């Protein structure tokens, strides 16, 4: 079951990027899927958003950011290929950096140099998944990628860092 959300009630920000104005939701709420869908029965909240990356290049690093309840995020290229999937690691102790029930790390992607290219203007899609057996507030679905415009063996060495934010006005909900 995919949880349907009507209230995305935390703050909304606007960011100007090369004459394109983006409005994005920094935090949102995941509602509980209800009593008939408990652990193991598909209680997953899926949020998707798409955004064009004005300047493409070669992906050299990627990682998602999620809060407790997160079960992973995937960044897709326009053709549906997986650019990077990032899975949370939950703590299992009491000490700092290993707090039980909290995300203490996310898996990262380091594609082989030159193997993952994003074209100029390519539309990327972010999918962020949360366990919705209970309500979670203040969750996030962010994805960070580091894109090199040229490969190291080419003459120009330059990289740009991009952040991919959930867009509360252009969300696609699966059902």
Automatic annotation (TrEMBL):
InterPro entries: Stress_up-reg_Nod19
PANTHER family from the UniProt entry: STRESS UP-REGULATED NOD 19 PROTEIN
Designated name of the protein: Stress up-regulated Nod 19 protein
Species, as recorded: Pisum sativum (Garden pea)
């Amino acid at each position: 079951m995919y949880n349907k959300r009507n209230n995305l009630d935390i703050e909304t920000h606007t960011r100007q990027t090369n004459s394109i104005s983006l409005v994005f939701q920094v935090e949102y709420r995941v509602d509980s899927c209800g009593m008939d869908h408990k652990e193991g029965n598909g209680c997953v909240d899926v949020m998707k958003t798409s955004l064009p990356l004005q300047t493409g290049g070669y992906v050299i690093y990627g990682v998602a950011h999620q809060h407790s309840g997160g079960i992973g995020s995937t960044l897709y290229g326009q053709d549906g290929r997986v650019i990077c999937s990032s899975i949370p690691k939950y703590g299992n102790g009491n000490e700092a950096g290993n707090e039980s029930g909290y995300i203490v790390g996310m898996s990262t992607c380091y594609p082989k140099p030159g193997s993952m290219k994003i074209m100029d203007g390519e539309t990327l899609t972010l999918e962020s998944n949360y366990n919705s057996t209970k309500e979670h507030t203040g969750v996030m679905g962010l994805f960070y990628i580091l894109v090199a415009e040229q490969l190291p063996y080419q003459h120009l060495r330059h990289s740009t860092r991009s952040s991919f934010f959930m867009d509360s006005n252009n969300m696609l909900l699966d059902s």
